[in-house]
Write a structure and sequence with these properties.
The structure holds 2 protein chains of 2 kinds. Chain A is built from 22 helices and no strands. Chain A is 64% helix and 0% strand. Chain A is mainly alpha-helical. Chain B is mainly alpha-helical. In chain B, helix 3 packs antiparallel against helix 4, helix 4 packs antiparallel against helix 5 and helix 4 runs parallel beside helix 6. Chain B is elongated, with a radius of gyration of 23 Å. The two termini of chain B are 21 Å apart. The model of chain B has no long low-confidence stretch (mean pLDDT 89). The chains are: A mainly alpha, B mainly alpha. At the A-B interface, helix 2 of A face helix 3 and helix 5 of B.
Chain lengths: 424, 191
Amino acid sequence: MSGEKQKNEGLSEEAKRKAEYFEHMSYYRYNGPAGGLSTWNMENGFLEARVRGFRSGFLTGAEYKQLMQCNTLDELKLALTDTDYGAFVTTVARNSEEKMDLYAKRLFDACQSKFLGEFEYLRMNATGILQTFLDMITYGPMINNFCKLIIAIQKTDEPAEVEKAIRNADPIGAYPHLNSIIAFDKKDDLIVDLFDSLLVDTPVSKYFWQYFLPEMTDEDEKKDEAHALRKFTTEVELDIMMNMLQKYLLEDMYNYSREIGGETWVVMKELLDFEADRRTLNVTYNSFGTPLNEPDRHDYERKMLYPNFGTLYPDGQTILSGYGPKPGISDFATLGNEFKSKNMRFAGLLQDEENFVYGLRQLEAKVYSMGFDSQSHFGCFYSFYKLKLIELRNLKLIFDTISQPRDVEERRSLFKSVTPIFEE
Amino acid sequence: MAFGVTSSGWVNQTALEENGWGEIIGCVNPQAWAAVGIGLAIGLSVVGAAWGILLTGASLVGASVKAPRIRSKNLISIIFCEAVAIYGVIMAIILISKYGSGGDPAVNKCSDLTTEMYFAGYGIFWSGITVGLSNLFCGICVGVTGSGCALAHAQQEEMFVKMLIVEIFGSALGLFGVIVGIIMSTDTAFP
């Protein structure tokens, strides 16, 4: 989790085997229902109370306003000392002659380390179903890390790029053997080799399997899996692979929440439905202007990227799968009208095209804050993670904006993206 | 001759055929029933109190890391749960005082059992169950409510007094059970 190098180089063979076994067991998938009101607190009451304590540490709208009025990074640092980030930010001192954006990055890293410490605390103290649940939350960043590394190796062959990708890897999705990916070079069957040796041991291997498996249609090729996998190396578009893996992870989380049942299922269904709808809309919206938007790829490839659940499934997805921007017509308005006629989500947001992104972010903050309602369920952990990501994104925007001198209009338009959390 | 057992060590089979299958319950010495009742009174009350304390305590300990001001006030929730166990102890002591000394050598056959003994035995047994079960559910109730109270108090200061009223109503349930149990066992007495 903290990404330190493996320390077991000098161990005997048996000790190494034991270390591997326990590492594998730490990703064990616990099954079964979590108890209701009268038994859930036995295993998870303490950590839920800690998460609710973290909830009261989020920055409020008034604090954001105060931060946005600062003109220099030192003023910003002073404004942050009253908040929960104070203890972390005061340790970062600016060296003389240091460039502003580097200083901003160090300040942001200090704020991020607060979140990483909190999440690591929760993960290390969790047992049972909560352990698996928190692990699943980390699989998203882990998939992103692996895919970005594969892209760095496949597209550019320089070791500097690969090392940069490892340095910029998302620390939540840390995996102990990530560094060993440096040993792989770009070649034709890179993904096959990677999969056989490294990826198959990771906890996200099942999503890679799901991605590769449907393509093995030939009977002969099924016997020789490596031969089938080799088809992918040159043809697969790695961005699409990343999105498909994230889709499979989302569906896995949906199924797992359903197995847990009870109050968790009621709350997580709402949150994951929103996540699926948002992913559907974002995939469509981001594909305008890319090769994915060609009409012959709509039904098969683009539609495959939509998750198989959510309020937009299946009607909304059929509507969306037919869309590509037509010249002269604003597609958002037509989409919005169609959604409104069927009473589907996002109808109001789509009507207002220029504020669409901001509106979507406000809706996201509102929906995830509902995860803290009610008691004795795991939704509060998922909400905590998602809302913290929103807050870190806000802070990064504020740091980056203030580190460069800008005029008032530019600042105001940039600060429009700051999303207050837990505001009415 | 020991009660129900012949000198050879086996149950007197002819007695069973004489008085019928009701003997399976009817010939159990009422003092045994009374003892089980006393055990359940204190046992189930303690289960309820322990369950309540574990539910509240987990949330209280976690929430007080970020908001230490809630520590002293929210111990009242724990005290309400503990009171449930105290009801059970009080009730058990009252019932023991009606338990008698037992071991009367004149009683050695099923037909020697008197109505007084039956009344006392069954009265104490069911009185114990009444108190035990009502305290069990009262303890769980106060525990769940206390856990919610601790979490809400950590977020907002004024939530505590309002939620305490809910807990007071919850703890009254155990008191109802104790009152009924005392009335049930008033006139019971082993001779």
